[in-house]
Amino acid sequence: MAKSPFDWMQVGHWTDSHARTGCTVITFTGNVVASGEVRGGAPATREFALLEPTKLVQGVHAVVLSGGSAFGLAAADGVARTLRTQDIGFPTAHGRVPIVVALSLYDLGVGNAMRWPGVPEGNAAFHEASANFDVGVVGAGTGATAGKWRGSQDAYGAGLGFAECRKDDLVVSAVIAANPAGDIGQRGVEARNALAGGSFEWPEVESPVGENTTIGLIATNAVLTKSQCRSVAEAGHDGLARAIFPAHGPTDGDALIAVAKPEVEAEEAHVRSLAAMAVEMAILSVENSE
């Protein structure tokens, strides 16, 4: 069990343990600034382009992390529709339009390939959102595995992790659904050391494109611009690369979003360092979660 470090952020899950899939919805009270970055070759995202610092919209109203590959992006529709009924969204001449960014990972191969989160499931996760939430094999992390770069026979359980780092009043937290092709933690360290020592032999396996991906959210109470949020998301990928080896591969669609609610003045460099650490810790917390 984890607890949100912020009174303006809540997390909820929908989990299907039998089909081994699920989704995680992160909601925010009030206005947050948001940006993000995708690395790796096989992303599945919704509304990610509006996170570019040059785009009009400055923030988001919810973030959805989902299993189900591209199909799972539909979970965001359930969240958007619910927010609309609450009159929450970006103001337009004909009503508010909720900004819901979604990121999906590929878990179709571990459970029921015909079952994935959709509109009802996204809505259910939204209504489950609270300051206290489960971690591990839940929500978007239900069907998450790691180590698939060595072959499917060597895959092992991963899941959804959470961590927070602090410096005085500055807080940076990370909610990460880790489903990488590479290894997490000690297995990755051993492979990295073998590579550095010249004794490593690359696995010879067929690796279908896109059957992986690590996705997540970084949240902070620092006063940041949209461009600075982009910088923090980039730093989060540094933490991802420290926790996973190899990272950001052609079959990973690794994507991170950074959101900030302006409460504490802080150096951007400090926020970046804490973001990298929080992402690394969140991923390492799910090693061998099954």
Q: Please name the CATH topology.
A: L-amino peptidase D-ALA esterase/amidase
Question: Which segments are poorly predicted (pLDDT under 50) over 5 or more consecutive residues?
Answer: none
Spatial gap, N to C terminus: 16 Å
The main pleated sheet reads as:
5 strands, mixed
Overall CATH architecture: 4-Layer Sandwich
Shape: globular
What is the N-to-C order of secondary-structure elements (H for helix, E for strand)? EEEEEEHEEEHEEEEEEHEHEEH
Mean pLDDT: 95
Roughly how much helix do the residues carry, as a percent range?
10-25%
Count of β-strands:
18
* Portion in beta strands: 25-35%
Any overview of this molecule?
The protein is of the alpha+beta class and 290 residues long. It has one domain (8-284): L-amino peptidase D-ALA esterase/amidase (4-Layer Sandwich), CATH 3.60.70.12. It has helices at 75-85, 119-128, 186-197, 226-243, 268-284, and strands spanning 2-3, 9-16, 21-28, 33-38, 45-46, 62-66, 90-92, 95-97, 100-104, 132-133, 145-146, 156-157, 159-167, 170-178, 183-184, 215-222, 244-245, 255-264. It has a five-stranded mixed sheet. It has a five-stranded mixed sheet with strand order 4-18-16-14-13, covered by helices on one side. A two-stranded antiparallel ribbon has the order 1-10. The chain is globular, with a radius of gyration of 18 Å. The mean pLDDT is 95.
